[in-house]
Amino acid sequence: MAESAFQATSETLPLPRFPLHAAPGLASPVSNIPYTQNAFLATSVRIPSQSATIRVFSRGLDVTSLTTGLLSLDPSVADVAIEPGRPPTLRAKRVGITQVALFPGSSSLSAQVAVSADTVRAVAIRNRVITDVSWFDRPPRTYTYPQEIEASVSLRQTLSRRPLTEQPADYGFLFSTVVWSDGHSEAVSGADMSVASATSNAVWTRPGGIDNSSIPGVEILNEAEDQWRVAVARDAASECIDGEDVVATFHRCGASLASGPVPIHIDVPDPVSVSFRILYAVLTPERDVASAAPFNRKTSSDFELMVRCVRA
After folding, report:
1. Is the dihedral of CA 9, 51, 152, 34 positive or negative?
2. What is the C-alpha to C-alpha distance for residues 258 and 206, in angstroms, rounded to an integer?
3. Domain presence at residue 71
4. Tens digit of pLDDT for each residue in 280-304?
5. Which residues contact 216 (CB under 8 A, 6 or more apart)?
6. Considering the domain boundaries, does residue 138 fall inside one?
7. Which of these, 41, 185, 238, 277, is most buried using a 10 Å CB contact count?
8. Pseudo-torsion of CA 126, 127, 129, 130, nearest 10°?
């Protein structure tokens, strides 16, 4: 079945609740999974280069995280990509039919996948910046099988702190979902995205890139391999961005397929006063007699400049 790893259906956060199902007593490696009543699901992929997320179910439970040996029997038609921390992805390459197998040699535990030449187009793209995830309904620590456990999480966006000398700014990551004309939704990698920003209040860093503008002399690596990173700029002002000021574009095979705005709310406190303090109030010129013993007057001094900010 094709699923999107991230879907945002509303401008309002937190996002709607969704159920989580706990798997009872499943053992690793994969060979120990009870295969009876197995539902190994894949999808029909419409166009070359379109992709879909693969889910593997055993007795109605999602055991995808345990299936590390998924493969396509004909990778020239569609190939399986498995990356740490992400669901396995099926990427179409050419028109044809192949089988996606649970592990090498498991021809009986496979699903047929067809790649067709039907024309589809990207009709929409949803872009969201997420800074934090927290439980909305936390699941209980224990349960009795086969009781169903439901839990939900809230996705937040909080961008309210500028970078300080020893403290980084608030930051988040961009998640994008493309909607195709056949109804299929695809969570796309940041490697397939570009970001055009017309605001100076946010600093964008591509996956694996370095931000060296937030804190002088400090390089901040974007360790996320699949998401763009956005941080509050050093001299940022409060701004509600929901239009053409920040636009994310989805690219594939050298073509730009869909563009959409990236809603961001930067809410930083406003500066209201400045205080200046010098460590030594009395100084003397260099090579002046007062700088030598027994006077030992300082010829220079450190100082402290404090800016007081208040949220409006």
Report:
1. positive
2. 18
3. yes
4. 888 888 888 888 888 888 888 888 8
5. none
6. yes
7. 185
8. 30
